[in-house]
Amino acid sequence: MTPILVRDLLMNMLLGLTALVVLVLAQINPIAKNNPDSTKPPGDIMVCIFWQGGHDVDLWGTAPGQSKATGYSNKNGEVLDLVRDDLGKDALTRPRTECQFARGLPDGRWVFNLHGFSINEPEVLVHAEIRLGSEYGFSLLLERDLTIKQRQERTIAQFQLRDGKVVPGSVNEVAVPLRSAQ
């Protein structure tokens, strides 16, 4: 009778081990493959500004080959588009946001500015982000906090692109008028 007990015990252990292996294998995920039909970023460059309060801060930008800067009075340029002009009046939107997206990455100088259109306080803190797109999403190029006053125009950044990449050492904050140059 002892050989039957040993056989039953070994079979139960084997059954338990098999069940454990099956459960563990079900938890392993295969590595995802690149899918050409997956969602591509909505543009090649994304620039967004964020602020709090009932102020109207405007985002202006220009790209190489663009005749007029993109902003609230020119929402669609040859390269850049203003996605949303936040007037600072909608009580449901917190924080306030404006974004511009670029179609393509032409070589040359890119400039992005803030303009304090309607500021109710001495100055407002604005957070700005510039991101470069790729087939895998956006990577952060620059992130800055700036203060803006009523009717003031400040350059977030200007930089040079060559072959879809930022030219090393070209990112700076030298003021370039965009809105006031209209």
Give a written overview of the molecule.
By secondary structure, the protein is mostly beta strands. 14% of the residues lie in helices and 38% in strands. It has one helix at residues 2-26, and strands spanning 45-51, 56-62, 80-82, 96-102, 108-118, 124-134, 137-148, 153-162, 165-166. Strands 3-4-1-6-7 form a 5-stranded antiparallel beta sheet, with no helix packed on it. The chain has a 4-stranded antiparallel beta sheet with strand order 2-5-8-9, with no helix packed on it. Strand 8 (153-162) and strand 9 form a beta hairpin. It is elongated and about 100 Å long. It starts with a helix and ends in a 16-residue tail after the last strand. The mean pLDDT is 86.
What would a concise description of this structure say?
The protein has 1 helix and 9 strands; from the N terminus they run H-E-E-E-E-E-E-E-E-E. The protein is mostly beta strands. The longest helix has 25 residues, at 2-26.
